[in-house]
Design a protein that fits this description.
The protein is mainly α. Helix content is about 50%, strand content about 0%. The longest helix is centred in the last third of the chain and has 17 residues.
Length: about 170
Amino acid sequence: MSRFRLAALAAVLVTGVPLFALQDKPEAPNKEKPKESRTAYLRRIFEKDRASYGDACRAVLSVIKDEHSDADFAAVSGDLAGRGAVLADWGLQESSLLTKGTLAYMVCKALDIKGGVTMRLFGINRRYALRECVHLRLMAGGTTDEYVTGRELIDVITNALIYKEQGHTDSQYK
């Protein structure tokens, strides 16, 4: 054996650390999640059997701000609560399944939909918000406790964007 190999073997035996471990290591990759593009985000949502409350919060905030956000759930839900699009006392977690009533409420608040006589007299709630969204053709019919699929969430957000731009949902893009 050469002198170098003997010296390296002795160093390993004495210190217990391989010689190559003492060399400069490349930087460890950043452990933050890579930013997800809006297209990848929409595809991931589209393929879900059941949309979550966190998905709806991010989608509705993107309608309000006209930009996609990768912020954490606490920041997104806090922003929506500050804008009045969600109620702070709902106590829903990010992974909670999304119902049509909750989504309708969020969409009505985000688009500042005043509603009919009942909503104007008694205020907005999930039931009347769903009725108004069905009337405006933002959502398909159903009950307030039905779960929303990923595809339905994408359809509602698409209709909400069209409504925001045009004031109605009649569009050549549907």
